[in-house]
Amino acid sequence: MTALKRLNSREEFLQLALACKEALDREKCKILVCGGTGCVAGGSLQIFDRLQALLQEKGLNVEVELAHEPHGDVVGMKKSGCHGFCEMGPLVRIEPQGWLYTKVKLEDCEEIVEKTVIRGENIERLAYHQNGEVYRRQEEIPFYKKQTRVVLEHCGHINATSILDYLGIGGYKALEKALFEMSPDEIIKEVSDSNLRGRGGGGFPAGRKWASCARQKETPRYIVCNGDEGDPGAFMDRSIMEGDPHRLLEGMIIAGLAIGSSEGYIYVRAEYPLAVDRLRIAIAQAEELGLLGDDILGTGKSFHMHINRGAGAFVCGEGSALTASIEGKRGMPRVKPPRTVEHGLFDKPTNLNNVETYANVPMIISRGAAWYKGIGPENSPGTKAFALTGTIQNTGLIEVPMGTTLREVIFDIGGGMRGGTNFKAVQIGGPSGGCLTSKDLDIPMDFDSLKKVGAMIGSGGLVVMDDKTCMVEVARFFMNFTQNESCGKCVPCREGTKRMLEILERIVAGQGRDGDIELLLELADTISNTALCGLGKTAPSRISGMNMKLTSTTNDVRQGLAAS
Amino acid sequence: MNREFDFGVVDEILDRYPKEELSTIAILQDIQEHYHYLPKEVFPHVAKAIGVGEARLYGVATFYENFSLEPKGKYVLRCCDGTACHVRGSLPILDSLRAELGLSESKKTTDDLAFTVETVSCLGACGLAPAMTVNGEVHPAMTPDKALALLAQLREELAKEGGDQT
């Protein structure tokens, strides 16, 4: 990589941003190979290398790193972040046509170079097919057509390891605006006005949290990002960290300016090594350019970023457990209050948001709160990224406006069930969430509507289940998960979930007894009222709420009982 | 173990971080990356270096699932049993690997230290469910047959390496 020169003023920043934009425009053809975890597992890195070698063999002017100086017509080769359509990977996107090639193999590389790059022809064989129709352009594919990708707008469209690519498409412009045109109060007001609500699950207004952290007298204050995306079946944050890491950094630096903090910590779960790598690269690049570190763009303001790798504990997604883990302790939650904004990391005022929340910030600052509120319902504006998985046709990462119904997501975007089975339920919000059935398909997915039916958006995992899935077994699966991940600090969670698991295991084995359901409900009630943290409080939710309703209609439990 | 433990590697790792409690997890992770587990000899040494009690350090090491106090196999096979993988049939894959290697939930590593089989709550590769990893490399859309074929391939590699050494 060419050495980056430190930027010491607003003018120098604007000059480089313009140069990067011009360099991107000079790329007459771009080949974006998906470098997300999914496609890498399918061999996309080898495809990238092969394509690059072939292009060079043909004597084409290949550009892997964005160059500042013009040097004729260029073919840009980019390892991008996750395109989202993991089911069809490895994916290769061709620009400017916007074509998407699916399930690309090494053997296809020659043809892509020969036909598409040199002659500008589409290879129909590699395009997406559905019900006899061919969809050449990515945006026409039903999976993408109904989506509104704003947080994920760059995922799959830029080189995820290049700060120059990010600058070229307008990156760090929001930071520039916040640095030179806005006071901390104005930044907080913009975020408050946008009504951005925390994307980690709770939906707490981000602006209010920022304001309350900024009000604390004690210093230093800390900015912490929760990248401990532990909910099984969720990978939105992973994709943002892997595919558009600078966006997260930019959001956190802006939060730092607003709150008066100069230290940021990103806590990433251990299972995401690629995300850690990409973030490390991004931090090093931002530091080199003087967008991170001391005296940012010559303003005298500073912000330092640290990465902490988790070590495999789901409970660390809980705020106080997460900060304990950063401090090098066992990741166990504590009693609240005091809240994290008052006594958080190192016992100092701390603003803790999740990855997707921070990733929303740059566009709110650059495009304004009014624009943001134009997306989705008024009380839950913006979009939400969901990981669509399970027994569904099209798995992958999607982004839709808040308030989109489950039906649109599962049947229009997800393409319905796999293998002609019937829809039975969808698990939403991870182990803390609930199960929704066909009668809930038309409920708009936003924080408040889902709460009314006893579910929650959670971090955004949607695991679809067909009619072959036994719901009692699913309840057992989640109870087993919670029991494993219980940190053991408080009795209701440690002992209560164990007892619930034993009962569920018995029912699944066909040895249910009279009174089991009543006992489960009683335990569920006690645990949710007395457990220390969110993990325990929500552990029995699917028993007391959704699953019982569900199972009484599908008779799974009764079958289990009858078999005894 | 009577053999003297060589602290050279551990000291080199300790030098990478500030010698205080907040470095605990990063240091343990690096040590584990080198040895593939946490040898018991390192605890007094590390505890003294970063100024925390040995019991406290041990408490951290046993709290987090990723740390192992027992040696792991040369190949660590991790079957994802996240929700998405679970509903697409991850358990039969785990069962067939365990059966083939004579392992169970409590016995995770083969006696010859060749293979370790464990589960992981979610790899975040849900789009490719069911997924598993071999020493960190993700293998997508697995079936019991594909898992056994993969295992056979790893055994071949192992045999070849053994052959090369003699």
Helix content of chain A: 40-55%
What's the Cα radius of gyration of chain A?
A: 24 Å
Number of helices of chain A: 23
The N- and C-terminal alpha carbons of chain A lie at a distance of 67 Å
* Corresponding CATH superfamily of the largest domain in chain A: NADH-ubiquinone oxidoreductase 51kDa subunit
Domains counted in the coordinates of chain B: how many?
A: 2
The N- and C-terminal alpha carbons of chain B lie at a distance of 27 Å
Query: Helix/strand/pairing class of chain B, anyone?
Result: alpha+beta
Strand order of the largest sheet of chain A: 2-3-1-4-5
What characteristic shape of chain A results from the CA principal axes? globular
Contiguous runs where pLDDT drops below 50 for at least 5 residues of chain A: 546-555, 558-564
Strand adjacency order, main sheet of chain B: 2-1-3-4
- Assign the structural class of chain A, choosing from mainly alpha, mainly beta, alpha/beta, alpha+beta, or little secondary structure: alpha/beta
Largest sheet of chain B: 4 strands, mixed
CATH superfamily of the largest domain in chain B: Glutaredoxin
CATH topology name of the largest domain in chain B, in short, is: Glutaredoxin
Give the helix proportion of chain B (percent range).
40-55%
Question: What quaternary form is this?
Answer: heterodimer
The low-pLDDT segments of chain B are: none
What does this structure look like?
The complex is a heterodimer of chains A (564) and B (166). Chain A has helices at 10-26, 37-41, 44-57, 109-119, 142-145, 163-168, 173-181, 184-194, 206-214, 236-243, 245-259, 273-288, 319-326, 355-367, 369-373, 406-413, 447-452, 471-485, 491-508, 516-530, 534-538, 541-554, 556-562, and strands spanning 27-34, 62-63, 74-80, 92-95, 99-101, 128-130, 133-135, 222-227, 263-268, 304-309, 350-354, 383-390, 396-401, 423-428, 434-437, 461-466. With 564 residues, chain A is α/β, with parallel strands linked by helices. Chain A folds into 4 domains: 10-145, Glutaredoxin; 171-373, Rossmann fold (3-Layer(aba) Sandwich); 383-466, Ubiquitin-like (UB roll), CATH 3.10.20.600; 471-562, NADH-ubiquinone oxidoreductase 51kDa subunit, iron-sulphur binding domain (de novo design (two linked rop proteins), Up-down Bundle). In chain A, the strands form 4 sheets. Chain A has a 5-stranded mixed beta sheet with strand order 2-3-1-4-5. In chain A, strand 9, helix 12 and strand 10 (304-309) form a beta-alpha-beta unit. Chain B has 2 domains: 8-63, no CATH class; 75-165, Glutaredoxin (3-Layer(aba) Sandwich). The mean pLDDT of chain B is 92. Chain B is globular, with a radius of gyration of 18 Å. Chain B is 46% helix and 11% strand. With 166 residues, chain B is of the alpha+beta class. The interface between A and B is large, with 55 and 41 residues.
